[in-house]
Amino acid sequence: MEVASKPIFNTLNRPALYTDFYELTMAQGYFLSGRKDEQACFNYFFRDLPFDGGYVVFAGLGDFLEILENFRFHDDELEYLKEQGFRPEFLEYLKDFELEVSIDSVKEGEIVFPLEPVVQVRGNIIQTQLLETLLLNILNFESLIATKAARLKYAAGERKVLDFGLRRAQGFGGIQASKAAIIGGVEATSNVYSSFVHGIPASGTMAHSWIQSFDDEITAFRKYAEYYPDNCILLVDTYDTLASGVPNAITVAKELEEKGHKLQGIRLDSGDLAYFSRKARNQLDRAGLDYVKIAVSNQLDERLIKSLLGQEAPIDLFGVGTRLVTGHETPALDGVYKLTSVNNEPKLKISENVEKITLPGNKKLIRYYDDRGRFYGDGIMLKEEGTVDTIYHPYYPAKHTKVTDFESEMLLYEVMRNGELTDGVPTPGDSAKYAKQRLEKLNAEHKRFDNPHIYKIGISKKLMDLRDELAQSLKKNN
Ligand SMILES: Nc1ncnc2c1ncn2[C@@H]1O[C@H](COP(=O)(O)OP(=O)(O)OP(=O)(O)O)[C@@H](O)[C@H]1O
Ligand SMILES: O=P(O)(O)OC[C@H]1O[C@H](OP(=O)(O)OP(=O)(O)O)[C@H](O)[C@@H]1O
Ligand SMILES: O=C(O)c1cccnc1
């Protein structure tokens, strides 16, 4: 079959077919069986923490809400669906489609944990179903990369981390990856497109090609410094880092000083980065250039950054590409979108694996604080419940915690009501600020890379009983 190709960027303006085929066949099925006005509730949650880590930084809400603004079916899309065999009466329904769903979500940048209803979509069953793939595609990817960025930043501490990943990203996902990286805590990106469309800070150094293009290294350095005297990071490893690169950078730094400027830094991109950074720091300091920063890159990740700083490498800035934007070594966040009620009747998915039985009903999510104002644990309960005294381990109810003495906070906000945004789209800057504040409230034992302490998640007795009773009756009937 021949498919006319369409510019990929149109996806943002025309998201309705950015979905899996079965969403449309199910939607048509609901329509044909006269169920189009049934009210459904779906929950977005994940089960496994990526990177064997202790938390997830939630991201993607801004892009999701923005894209929903354009969710409608255009004539050529309806024509395509007609060719795929969809019925005229359903296509007529889609022609007049206007999004009317309501969405509860935690804030972008929130720290979230397994099983939590991070996003809850309410509305008619056709509309809520049709959003599944789009929502999962955006939220799973951006949350994965924001989480990776937070881990890199945790390893780097006060030192800066730059995103260098566009060239190694999974295609156009690089646009989202760079934004998510900023939300997770990275300071700036080399990705100009993402900077342009998302209003995030762009930054960069120079490539080996610049230096290779000149007859000698010093001329390459001088020329760059001439054009960018206040924003110049010289790549020093093209020929011989310590015998040529750093001495030439020192010469240029001195020339800049004479003209009233300061060399910003040097970048190391190969070899033993601890050894070379120490030697380079020594050479720079001996030349009176203690203000010149040292940037490093080369297949870095959070563990390598931690290791380099453990080796007391005098590094000020880490450029991270591949392993940031590809979410190395977790290819995807396993977030799912599960039906939890139809016409206010709670729904459940049973599994042989008890940990895969879903939590039914329309919910709320509460965070409890310890006496130092740090996150103590989270409670998942039914929306209609009042104050809850005790939260129970989702699978081992003998493990429970009394929560009456803790300060608490509701985490879900209605971000869309009947298809209208309630409070605009979160900006990456605001989400990054929020993620930073929230990560400060998360205890270090949940942030460490090796065997992080498991964060306490509990469910209310009512929710547990509802789940167990429903599971029993479904098993009897099926
Ligand atoms: N002191 C260090 N401790 C731990 N890892 C390091 C240290 N220095 C560098 N690394 C990392 O080790 C890897 C080195 O990669 P590799 O052996 O391919 O060397 P290279 O310098 O990239 O060689 P080249 O670029 O010349 O091919 C990179 O991921 C780099 O970040
Ligand atoms: O290693 P990553 O974490 O993926 O970071 C990005 C890499 O991309 C660049 O190398 P590349 O060889 O593509 O170009 P260059 O000439 O600028 O070094 C840069 O020098 C980094 O090494
Ligand atoms: O600006 C840089 O130094 C840069 C940008 C992309 C990839 N690697 C390095």
Automatic annotation (TrEMBL):
Residues 160-358 form the Nicotinate/nicotinamide phosphoribosyltransferase domain. Pfam families: NAPRTase, NAPRTase_C, NAPRTase_N. SUPFAM superfamilies: Nicotinate/Quinolinate PRTase C-terminal domain-like (SSF51690), Nicotinate/Quinolinate PRTase N-terminal domain-like (SSF54675). Transmembrane segments: none annotated. The keyword Phosphoprotein applies. It catalyses: 5-phospho-alpha-D-ribose 1-diphosphate + nicotinate + ATP + H2O = nicotinate beta-D-ribonucleotide + ADP + phosphate + diphosphate. Its EC number is 6.3.4.21. Belongs to the NAPRTase family. Catalyzes the first step in the biosynthesis of NAD from nicotinic acid, the ATP-dependent synthesis of beta-nicotinate D-ribonucleotide from nicotinate and 5-phospho-D-ribose 1-phosphate. This is Nicotinate phosphoribosyltransferase. It comes from Halalkalibaculum roseum. The lineage of its organism: Bacteria, Pseudomonadati, Balneolota, Balneolia, Balneolales.
